[in-house]
Amino acid sequence: xxxxxxxxxxxxxxxxxxxxxxxxxxxxxxxxxxxxxxxxxxxxxxxxxxxxxxxxxxxxxxxxxxxxxxxxx
Length: 73
Description:
Elements: H1 13-23, H2 28-35, H3 39-53, H4 58-67
């Protein structure tokens, strides 16, 4: 794999899915209802995605994931 290619395995599919819904402006309870998860579980997925991306906020996670090609803008 080329050095510039996005590492699709950096985030789990569920983390990517949660971040994509955060990008749409949904709250954790709204994301949870859409995906059949508790808001706590959604927050854990987002928190873990933040850690993997090296950022501190939901907004930063969305921006960084989009920048790396892990979610669409």
